[in-house]
Write a structure and sequence with these properties.
It is a single chain. The chain contains seven helices and eleven strands. By secondary structure, it is of the alpha/beta class. The longest helix has 13 residues, at 73-85. Residues 128-137 and 223-228 have low confidence and may be disordered.
C-alpha cells in the first residue's frame, strides 16, 4: 500500500513521508536534541522508520554515518531513499532487531545508537491500526530487544539515547543494565506543571560507571496561565 506522500523541510534536508507510515513527531525532535553527538560519528537508529531521526541528527553535526534497522519494508526503503536523496552516508537494513548480531557479527561498531521504540506492552495503552501499531506496541519488538541490540552495537563508552514512557522507566532501566548499558542522563517531558510527565529521554553509556544525572524537566506546552 502506498499512501499520500509529503515533503517536510528539515533545515537543509528534505524528508519524504507517507500518510500511513509513522511521521516526524515531537518525541523524535526532542530526542535528536537530547542525544550527545559529535561530528563524524557512526550512528545506528533502531526502528528507524522513514529515517526521521537521522535527518534531524545530520542538522546538528557534519560527516555522520547514519545506519538504521527497520521492521517495515516500505519504511526501510523510504529511509534509504531519504539518506540517498540528501547526500548522506549510511545504510538501512530491513529486518527485526533480534537478528542484529547476524547483520553485525563484530560488536562495538558505533559511538551512538538512538531509538524511538514502541512504548506500550502488548494489548495495553493506545495503539493504532496497520503499520503504526508496530511502532507503538511491543508486539514485534520489546524493550529488552532494543537494549540488547544497542549493547551489542556500541563500543565501550558509546552512548544509547532513547525516549520512553515515564511509567515504564523501571523496566527500561532493568533492560539497559542487563545489556551492559548504564543510565547516565535523563530528562522528563511534560506539557505543563499541572500535567504529569508522560515521556522520558534517557541516555545510557556502554559499561559506564553508576550515576544518573537528572536534567531539569522540559516543558513542551504553554504555561497553565496561557491555556484557554
Amino acid at each position: 500500500m502506498t499512501g499520500r506522500e509529503t515533503i517536510e523541510e528539515l533545515g537543509g534536508y528534505r524528508l519524504r513521508q507517507r500518510s500511513h507510515l509513522p511521521k516526524l513527531g515531537t518525541d523524535s525532535n526532542q530526542l535528536s536534541q537530547f542525544a550527545t553527538l559529535h561530528a563524524r560519528e557512526k550512528v545506528c537508529d533502531l526502528g528507524c522508520g522513514v529515517g526521521v531521526l537521522g535527518l534531524l541528527l545530520a542538522q546538528r553535526r557534519e560527516g555522520l554515518t547514519l545506519d538504521g534497522i527497520e521492521l517495515v519494508a516500505e519504511s526501510a526503503a523510504l529511509a534509504a531513499e531519504n539518506l540517498r536523496e540528501n547526500g548522506l552516508q549510511g545504510q538501512v537494513i530491513h529486518g527485526v532487531l533480534r537478528d542484529c548480531r547476524r547483520w553485525f557479527p563484530t560488536p562495538g561498531g558505533y559511538q551512538l545508537v538512538v531509538s524511538n521504540p514502541p512504548y506500550f506492552a502488548p494489548h495495553t495503552g493506545k495503539t493504532a491500526d496497520g503499520v503504526r501499531a508496530a511502532a507503538r506496541s511491543e508486539e514485534t519488538c520489546t524493550v529488552e530487544d532494543v537494549c540488547a541490540a544497542a549493547g551489542w552495537l556500541l563500543r565501550t563508552g558509546g552512548r544509547f539515547a532513547l525516549c520512553y514512557r515515564s511509567e515504564r522507566l523501571a523496566a527500561l532501566f532493568a533492560a539497559l543494565q542487563k545489556s551492559g548499558l548504564e543510565p547516565k542522563r535523563m530528562q522528563l517531558i511534560q506539557h505543563s506543571a499541572v500535567h504529569p510527565p508522560k515521556v522520558a529521554l534517557v541516555e545510557a553509556v556502554r559499561l559506564g560507571r553508576p550515576g544518573l544525572k537528572v536534567l531539569p524537566t522540559l516543558f513542551v506546552g504553554a504555561p497553565p496561565a496561557e491555556r484557554k
